[in-house]
Amino acid sequence: MGEFINPANVPKVTLYTGEQIPCVGMGTFGSDRFTPEEVSSAVAGAIRCGYRLFDCAACYGNEDQIGKVFQDAFEEGVVDRKELFIMTKVWNDMHERVEESCKKSILDLQCGYIDLFFIHWPFPNYHAPHCNADSRNPDSRPFSTDEFIRTYRQCEALLEKGLIRNIGISNMTIPKLEAVLPLMKVMPVACEMELHPCFQQQELFDYLVAHKIQPVGFMPLGSPQRPERDMCQEDIADLQQPEMKKIAEAHGCHPALISLKWARQRGQIPIPFSIYEAEYVSNLRAMTEDPLTEDEMKTIATLERNNRLVKGQVFLWEGASDWHALWDEDGYIVK
Ligand SMILES: NC(=O)c1ccc[n+]([C@@H]2O[C@H](COP(=O)([O-])OP(=O)(O)OC[C@H]3O[C@@H](n4cnc5c(N)ncnc54)[C@H](OP(=O)(O)O)[C@@H]3O)[C@@H](O)[C@H]2O)c1
């Protein structure tokens, strides 16, 4: 058996409900590179090394394999269901059938209920798996508050039925939050968003914290192996920044771990992905030792470069100018 990091020693983050959850989780999106079996074997290893938080999604196409791994771990007595915090998401093509999607995830993941259920994207715009970045679905349309709230109400109903314990939102902007938060009966506990040293989304981050919504940071390492459709020439490699390398040298570790330490100390929950045991173990261990200094935190704060990697081109509607239209950059919802 490999290294075990006692989950009790992994720092916790407190949600507005008072519940404490681990400050780091494991991502499970194989980026079209890794098979469901490779990803689920990593989840099996991660549970045994002490991970308790997992970020899944219906659209990652591997929930049934991950479910087998969860079931084995429960049966073998490695972990109890209630010790795990399992997150998943409803995909864009199921916004009108949220309960069906949730029940399928619960069945596939063999976990009885979902701890945190996200609306993956704030609109129902669907794209076929593996499609290229220029493809447009003629049914795609701009964000609609009414449509979003219709989807959110279905999540609120899932809470009442006990199928989920918390609701989350993802890929949101401040203008969209301003439109929808006043209409919610139950506030979301978390917002999953892209966060890495060269893309810090400070304004949105502060807005969420002010509204007691916990930021969960996806692509915390700048996703060096993301699918080709999410790669552009102007993208910056976060971990290659000289400042990141220098801080990593001072700590005698890979810049990936510096990025995760920064994330934790700033207050977001990073959900790094790796199928390699040495990497995912070191990602968890990094949370328990050798924090960054205040000066190092300040240096990383200067690395903001507006380096958005998931631009979302494939969700654009006919007539939309370009991907910037998805992110309401001028302070209003682009229609
Ligand atoms: N809500 C959303 O819309 C959304 C969008 C994207 C992602 N996500 C979630 O966020 C998770 C993480 O994002 P991501 O997987 O794209 O990117 P990421 O975690 O930033 O990067 C993953 C890559 O970093 C490398 N890596 C991991 N640990 C390392 C270490 N200790 N040292 C060196 N390299 C290391 C691995 O590359 P090698 O394989 O080469 O080792 C791995 O493939 C996903 O799995 C998914 O759960 C959510």
UniProtKB/TrEMBL annotation:
| Listed CDD domains | AKR_AKR1-5-like
InterPro entries xref list: AKR, Aldo/ket_reductase_CS, NAD(P)_OxRdtase_dom_sf, NADP_OxRdtase_dom
Query: Which residues are in the NADP-dependent oxidoreductase domain?
Result: 23-303
Q: Which residues bind substrate?
A: H120
GO molecular function terms listed in the Swiss-Prot or TrEMBL record: oxidoreductase activity
Superkingdom of this protein's organism: Bacteria
- Cite the active-site annotation: Y60
Q: Where is this site: Lowers pKa of active site Tyr?
A: K89
**Protein name per its UniProtKB record:** Aldehyde oxidoreductase
Species name for this entry? Lacrimispora celerecrescens
Question: What's the source species' lineage?
Answer: Bacteria, Bacillati, Bacillota, Clostridia, Lachnospirales
